[in-house]
Amino acid sequence: xxxxxxxxxxxxxxxxxxxxxxxxxxxxxxxxxxxxxxxxxxxxxxxxxxxxxxxxxxxxxxxxxxxxxxxxxxxxxxxxxxxxxxxxxxxxxxxxxxxxxxxxxxxxxxxxxxxxxxxxxxxxxxxxxxxxxxxxxxxxxxxxxxxxxxxxxxxxxxxxxxxxxxxxxxxxxxxxxxxxxxxxxxxxxxxxxxxxxxxxxxxxxxxxxxxxxxxxxxxxxxxxxxxxxxxxxxxxxxxxxxxxxxxxxxxxxxxxxxxxxxxxxxxxxxxxxxxxxxxxxxxxxxxxxxxxxxxxxxxxxxxxxxxxxxxxxxxxxxxxxxxxxxxxxxxxxxxxxxxxxxxxxxxxxxxxxxxxxxxxxxxxxxxxxxxxxxxxxxxxxxxxxxxxxxxxxxxxxxxxxxxxxxxxxxxxxxxxxxxxxxxxxxxxxxxxxxxxxxxxxxxxxxxxxxxxxxxxxxxxxxxxxxxxxxxxxxxxxxxxxxxxxxxxxxxxxxxxxxxxxxxxxxxxxxxxxxxxxxxxxxxxxxxxxxxxxxxxxxxxxxxxxxxxxxxxxxxxxxxxxxxxxxxxxxxxxxxxxxxxxxxxxxxxxxxxxxxxxxxxxxxxxxxxxxxxxxxxxxxxxxxxxxxxxxxxxxxxxxxxxxxxxxxxxx
Length: 650
Prior knowledge:
Layout: H1 3-10, E1 16-18, E2 24-26, H2 29-39, E3 51-55, E4 62-63, E5 71-76, E6 79-85, E7 90-91, E8 100-106, E9 112-117, E10 132-137, H3 153-166, E11 170-173, E12 177-178, E13 194-198, H4 214-217, H5 220-227, H6 234-254, H7 258-288, H8 304-341, E14 347-352, H9 361-365, E15 374-378, E16 388-392, H10 397-402, H11 406-416, E17 421-424, E18 432-437, E19 446-449, H12 452-466, E20 469-472, H13 480-488, E21 493-496, E22 501-502, E23 505-506, E24 516-519, H14 528-533, H15 535-542, H16 551-567, H17 578-586, E25 592-596, H18 597-600, H19 634-645
Parallel strand pairs: 3-9, 10-11, 10-25, 11-14, 14-17, 17-20, 21-24, 24-25
Antiparallel strand pairs: 1-2, 4-7, 5-6, 5-8, 8-9, 12-13, 15-16, 15-18, 18-19, 22-23
Helix pairs in contact: 1-2, 3-8, 7-8, 11-12, 17-19
């Protein structure tokens, strides 16, 4: 093995992979070279300090290599958590040790880190047999009589109340990550500027105490126009909300309630340097109008000296972005509190994107943790013969190990901050990711292995601490042993009815996994109305995409769906009805059924058509019915009644 191959192997880069036809594809040497350079960038240690893993209920002895009789102790800061003597070349961590990250000291050994994990992630505490449902929405798409042409957190609070009234356990949401609010073409919630902070377009300005009101702000006419649009006008929404929040911030800065100033200071202290870096990035990207690696050298790294200098020269500008994040956080927190007050077992169920924009805040703020000049994607397969490049940057697996998984823990804490459940997009990435160096195509990418057990242990720790379910989006070709590993750690599976088939046959309800989320479709797949009518096939052909199936194929699939429904005593000879799908999925043992509001309302278009940017209005369509009308909508009442009769209601 040559030096390049050895270095690649040491960094977890796989030199070949099996394509969709089972053929082995060798990774080009140029790809290996550039991935080696990228993974070794930033001074990441190639031999980080050891991190030992102890899993309560599973681990029996931790082999550390110290001599018998050597004394050891576990410390949290300077506080001693446990102590003992090495026996049989190892040690046992006491059952009373809380899950977390500790320092391990043992005589004759270098200091190491100790990750103590619970046996599994949080699993709900209301009985193992409980089966519930949640109402899923694309929050930006919510239409209400009072929002500004883009769903907001006041709408979300109303949806929480609706969920409680119809017997749902919570509200499922698209990612709420901070985007580039001044770039309307960057509308995908799965391509975030930052996964640590929130999208300010979800703020309801009229719920901000410092906002002077629509009339005084001069925004009434603009807001009235936005309320009447059928698609989200991101540029106009951002302009209106930006103007409103600037007015609110000016009033806040000049005076205001002392208690609110104290709450803002507490928020800034809690979020710490991460918030400072995010605010600094927002200031600097508007100053230089270029990707951060092209900024003047003094600003390319968020060093303490650079941040202090920016605070001194542009303190109010930084404070504005910190203030906006505080508003978003307190409004989302109010939604969580509303869910708790109504006794919803899950409350908010949010998506976590698989990566971040390479030119965004997270990539600039944590350059030592993100792989530079590389994007996540997928190799060529039968449906995407050219492969996929997603334009997202990922964590550096070597940095995760070197930092004892702290960057991943920070990300999870941000995602779980107000959530009762999170869904990890492309959970296969905890095991390996397909990485493509900038400038190369997907056919020239390579798989890079990630420290799966350490990442799962970290997820279990944060999940247990915050009593938050973790769902893994495990669609596609997934090794069965990986699903078993995820299930063993208490990570729930994600089952989509359109994919749950045995050959051509739709699976019977009893064939679904128990610890899983089950749903009919996803944001990247046809809605129910779109699928049964073939609308999705026509849309794709009209914009030059291969839909992957013919009308005859779809008709055969529809017949198989009718067969599946009739085997369960549902449906009629004609077109399947969505309420029958709801009943079918309600009868699965899967503990959480997610019902999309789009499907209840009969929306034809899916939120996103993969492979398109300008050809289709992705992430822009607004719901056809106003939020205020949903409680009395006959379709909503029919679905709620069906779920109540099937034993799914809270």
